[in-house]
Predict the 3D structure of the following.
Amino acid sequence: MVACDALFLGPHPDDVEIACSGAILRLARAGRRSAIVDCTRGEMGSRGTSDQRMKEAAEAAAALGVADRRNLGLPDTKVAADDASVRLLVAAIRESRPSLLFAPHDRDVHPDHVATAHLASKAWFLSGLARFEPGLGAPHRPRTLIRYPGNVPIEPTFVLDVSDFADLKAQVIRCYRSQLADGGARGHLVQGLDILERAQVRDRFYGARTGCAAAEPFVVDGPLLLRDLDSLIG
Ligand SMILES: [Zn+2]
């Protein structure tokens, strides 16, 4: 993978876009490079084929302007934080050498999201150990592991104002045509809302709680270090 500042790990193509595309767009505006790693091709999804979802993922990556996107090819619904999967993710981390690793939160109803959360924890730590699989590249541990919510609400450590990017985020999510409500197909959708509606409701909710139009929620383990207070004043 190419070098990046932030690496976004998703269980299925579209999870990163739903939760974090505002963060990716904000990083891009600050001149920071992002890359995406998807664990699976989403072949067990109720809607669309894996070929369709791979095409949609490529389109979304282009719309986001990410530097790279890799699919680990793990089996959908059977993601596990096993040794082989950890090695694949450690290789991606050591190649791209990000400062920030974004990964799912482990409180989720989808087993792949829970497993991907654990996979991220293991790979984040082990990729920094010099004697762990030296053939996979020079050791590197991202400075901060940041969690994003999936299907279960979490109380965020911080929220990121993505108001300026709400329209572009909607465009990015619309790339996943197979996952959008298309008249009469709502029976397949979680809580009757498609992925765009769920993302917009959540972003508006956290925006309303913090005084902006739209905000993405994130969690970090332990204290979050701020290097200045400017963003709290401005
Ligand atoms: Zn998912």
User: Anything to note?
Assistant: Residues 56 and 176 are 5 Å apart (CA to CA).
